[in-house]
Amino acid sequence: MEHFYVWRFNKSKRWLVVVALALFTAAFVWFEQDGAFSVSSQDKPVALTKGDANETDIALTFNISWGEENVLDVLEQLEKNQVQATFFVSGEWAERHPDIVEKISEGKHELGMLGYRYKSYLDQDIEQVRKDLLHAREVFKKMGYEDINLLRTPSGHFNKEIIELAEELNYQVIHYNVDTNDWKNPGTDFIIDQVMKQTENGDIILLHASDSAKQTSDALKKILPGLKNKGFDFISITEMVNAAHAKAKMVE
After folding, report:
1. Where are the domains positioned within the chain?
2. Which of 112, 173, 201, 223 is the least crowded, having the fewest Cβ atoms under 10 Å away?
């Protein structure tokens, strides 16, 4: 025998359900449209995944943790198309390639970090993560880059505890919402299609400049002019963060 359970609500309870659903829908739409995602007891934006969907600004970002050849090709394409990007580099890689870090900076690109050693923070206890971040800070400081406050966690892995630690150490966690998976080398055309079809206003695009991403620089030959032709404006992550903060302040 089959049993059916029916929820019965009186009139007042039905209205409560309707109101709750409406509030949930409104919150979902707000996150989808405005994009600045925050996790904090004080509702302070600490993990940015997307900028303002009402503006044509987008941020092009590159992760680097290994190799020294592809990044030079990437920098060449950015220079040819007069595009400034944000590079997230591991402290361990930066120590080994100070000359390339200098080229990135001289190209007026923004520097962020991936911690020191590229290992998922979810596989480490919180004190190990703290040591990694502090060691990375010291490395960049010795190299003359004392003002780096943008952090992308290794493999994009984080939780509330990691975000709170980053905030405590005055880092802004930066995520992304357009993932090209270029490090898998799925084919130049695939990478181009991923970016051109998915990118919308306010998006943060993830690409890689490590030597493992062998097809990225070739894909940029079409991606960069293509995004410009679609009317997008490239900005740094810091500019996107500042715009998000300014908007939140205006709402208050």
Report:
1. 69-251
2. 201
